[in-house]
Amino acid sequence: MIRVLIADDQALVRAGFRMILRAERDVEVVAEAGDGAEAVAAARELGPDVVLMDIRMPEVDGIEATRAIVRDMTSPRVLVLTTFDLDEYVFGALRAGASGFLLKDAPEDQLTSAIRVVAAGGSLFAPSVTRRLIEDFARRDAGRPAPPALDALTAREADVLRLIARGRSNQEIAGELVLSEHTVKTHVASILRKLGLRDRTQAVIAAYEAGLVRPGG
Question: What long-range pairs does 102-111 form, CB within 8 A, spacing at least 24?
Answer without folding.
Answer: 102/126, 103/128, 104/13, 108/20, 111/17, 111/20
